[in-house]
Amino acid sequence: MNEEILTIIKENSQSHKYENNTATNISELVHVSRNEVATILKTLVARHVLMKIEERPAYYIDKQVFENEYNMKIEQDVFKSLDLLLNQSRQSVRDFDKLIGHDGSLSDLINQCKATIAYPPDGLPMMLYGPTGTGKSFIAKLAYEYAKNQNLLEAQGKFIAVNCSEYANNPELLTANLFGYVKGAFTGAEKDKAGLIELANGGVLFLDEVHNLKAECQEKLFQFMDQSIYHRVGDNETWYTSKVRLILATTENPEKVLLKTLQRRIPMTITVPSLQQRGMQEKVQLIYSMFKEEEERLHKKISISTKAYNILLSHEFPGNIGGLKSCVQSCCINSLFQENDEGDMLIQLKSLPNSILNDITEKSAVYTSASEYIKIDDLQNFIHKEKNIIRLNEELMKHYKECVQRIINEEQCIERCRDTVWKYFDSTLIYKEQEQQKDFYQNGIQHILDLVAGQYKFEVTNNDILSVCSYLNAYTKDYHSFRNWSVKNNEVVETFYSFMKQHYHREYSISEEIGKYLSSYLDMDVLPMAMITFIFYFQSLKKDDTYQKRAGVILAHGFSTASSIADAVNKFLGKYVFDAIDMPVNVDMNSVLQQLNSYMKKLGKTEELFLLVDMGSLEEIYKGLHLDNVNVGIINNISTKTALEIGNGILQNRAMEDIFKDVVAYSSTSYHIERNRQKEKVILCSCASGVGTAEKLKQIMEDSLPLQSEISVRVYDYNELVEKGMNSTLFDDYHVLCVIGTLNPNIEQMNFVPIEDLIINDCLGELDNYLEDSMTIEQLQDFKKNILKNFSLSNIMNSLTILNPNKLLEHVADAIDRLQIALDFNFSNNTCFGLYVHISCLIERQVMQKEIEIYPDMNIFEKEHALFISYIKESFKDVENFYRVTIPIAEIGYIYDYVRNDKNFIERGFCI
Ligand SMILES: Nc1ncnc2c1ncn2[C@@H]1O[C@H](COP(=O)(O)OP(=O)(O)OP(=O)(O)O)[C@@H](O)[C@H]1O
What we know:
The chain is of the alpha/beta class. It has 44 helices and 26 strands. The strands form eight sheets. Strands 5-8-11-4-12 form a five-stranded parallel β-sheet. A five-stranded mixed β-sheet has the order 19-18-20-21-22, with helices on both faces. It has a four-stranded parallel β-sheet with strand order 24-23-25-26. The protein is extended and about 130 Å long. It starts with a helix and ends in a 5-residue tail after the last helix. One of its GO terms (molecular function) is transferase activity.
């Protein structure tokens, strides 16, 4: 019982949900009376295992967890409030540990400070150089505290700070205040006075904004630095001495503002980074601690809207940490009377100072799925990420152990783990780092992900790169704890890892591959628990289209038969083609089917699945599969050789049946194809004028389709359509509702709508016949309305050609007029229209030098229709001259097809 209670309290303590650890809550969870739980809790407090917070209702915190987190020892076991406990933890923090970033961006700086101030015998002068508000004064004060704590200073040694900019207009006064003066040294010097240098004797003198020191004062100062002696102002005789550790600070480049002689006497210049350079983790910590201070000051809890919070995180404060701090304070003042039902003060977007609101730009876009308001205390969850990574391990392990103990099933286990990992990765993305901050490390990871993505056919987004970087950052920072944790849990991690391999072969292979690259490129040793985390994360990666269309899986009995074959074949093919499912040797058919069906569920929208099995009745398998809109080909008795042949066929995009037939011909395999895929309904755009025209036509059609229509539009080469007719493989994959184009391909059983019908004739009624089964009445009406709008002649011309459509039409109309005169008959409106469009596209093709060179039986056409060819040449002479093109015979052939299909031409029985 104690164990169970302790686990609950530990978990809540780790996630800072302390308030959940009340006796009542716990008694409900463990199904034991509240009194009994209260007695147990009391004993645990007495044994210093738990701390009691005596609020109403009282709650409990795991002492060890708290002590580890705050890196301190707590003597007391009972506290009146949580704030008192937190206060104690804060007060116990010594000197440099008070700096946020002491274990991060400022750790080198702190080491430099420590070494300089402790340098024997009396420390060395140091210069802190950095933009305003970055913490130079704070660091100087902490350096003093450090020296004090290390007994480097005399007992009475003080910290004296002087801001030189306050004396900018009166440099003499600064010199006098620093070095002291004697009576009569200047008007008003009524008696001798010791300077600050003397006051600081045995302690630290901090000179801020030192670039304001005039040359004279600088000279006096370096003499003091050299020999620890100086004159008071007005007395050049007496030497005074003082033992002071000097810290100087400036926002200006010391090399430009200080005398060389002074510079030489400052051996250590320490650069303090700007707020932007501190990284997201430290920003969160700063915001947290600033609001925490305000909570204490105002005796109120604070919640902040995610929008306001994200702006605080991403805004570039010119005043750096100081600027952020004043912004936090302004927010609190502006929201003093803004409360929610729980009495929390609410910081909203409107609480931000106007200067920041006016500056909100695109780059403030932040990625968080958190709820609308965040409690300041909850920000803690985003801090200590290094420890979070161990907590993440713990949580994953907990789900897995529950699965092993059969408290939850495998599916639930995977779902919970995935959820946990995604939430973790989400929280690392609260703020998108800016592009220019990409460092070598990030570039390396991007390169690795790109390499692996190419091989495994998935897409990598910028967020993926940031997420992986962020995880690996935390991982390297806390590598030792991670390794210790792994050693302790080694056995379970190993079985967990093979469990993952069995269920997610593809993601497993991706993680392994990335692990290998990380080790060879970035010298990183990725432990199995980190691999497991990646396997869960990579389940979210979007597979690219080719993978999406055709998938392959090898299913075999034996510990690693399937995965060995799959790995070998994938390596050989240089692409990830096959997933693998390893089945225990004596497993029954039901379990096989169960595995397969859950695999099919994971697969998503695949059109074809190649299922390679080692044995078993094909019939038994396909009858047990839940197939939904996917064609499945099952082949048995597979080997590495047959798998390789099939993999090759998949990559070459050969038809499933052809691939299987080839394999069966030389091996003792058999196959069965279960066609279950519903063909996609399409409208085909195919134009004699070329694929380019068809593409543009497709665009207009797509713009006209109603939003929710299940019909899509595809382009198909006109000549291929004419040549192959219904035998084209296109019809295996698609249910073609109709073809729209400039010239009828004359295929039986195929509906054709000439483009001109969409423009001039009210022939849209015909579309009803073709589309009524695939669209609702409303959708059809919308579609037709959009067509009428989008298919005006000028719109078509504008979309189809890059040439000036008005000029082009004028020329074409003239040429067609001439052709009609030569032929001595008038084309029907439809033919005219078709010819306008066709010939305009034809001219554009010539101009762009993309002419059509083939016309079926061209030689015969040339011989038999010489007269027609000469008419065209004559009629289009001006067009040819104007555009400097020559209309080739093949193109004339297609013009002839228009003319020959004209109803007036047919009626008059012409033959030219
Ligand atoms: N690392 C840090 N952790 C916590 N608080 C910090 C940190 N750095 C600075 N601060 C806080 O930010 C505020 C500004 O710091 P500080 O005045 O020391 O900056 P500065 O560089 O001396 O500025 P200036 O150049 O304008 O004098 C102070 O309130 C300080 O306590």
